Amino acid sequence: MNVSALPIDSPSPHSGPASGAEAHSPVPSAPEPPPSAEDLAAAALRRLETALEALDRAVSRHTDRRMQLSDQEAEYSALQEDRSRLAQALDAANERIDTLQDNQIEAARRVERASAAVRAILATARGES
Q: 25-29, 53-57, 66-70, 86-90 — which is least confidently predicted?
């Protein structure tokens, strides 16, 4: 874009001379020369460098987030494996408890039958004496 500078105090065609005498206007400054191709290229290069730095920061943040997500997924997977292993161990422990309870009930029945048999033998032995 080529924008040339306008003089600061350009005389207006509608303004007349001040107090009957011709007003002296300050000497208009020379317009700035248009930027050179080197200046435009340098400005474009600075904008490109700024954009590349912003892109690098964004990629770095994205990579960090992906690594965090990967770490969280690995931790979640390990927790799921632990939960599964603990659930299996709990199921095995509950089966063992059930087996022990069944064995206890069976042992109590046998003890009761043995006690009844001993009482019967003792009652018979007393009756014979």
A: 25-29
Query: Measured between alpha carbons, how far is residue 94 from residues 62, 86, 90, 112 in Å?
Result: 47, 12, 6, 27
pTM: 0.46
For the record, the structure tokens of 14 come out as 């509608």
DSSP string, 48-115: HHHHHHHHHHHHHHHHHHHHHHHHHHHHHHHHHHHHHHHHHHHHHHHHHHHHHHHHHHHHHHHHHHHH
Nearest to 51 by CA among 59, 61, 63: 59
State the Cα–Cα distance between residues 14 and 27, nearest whole angstrom.
19
Which pair of tokens denotes residue 107?
Answer: 């042992």
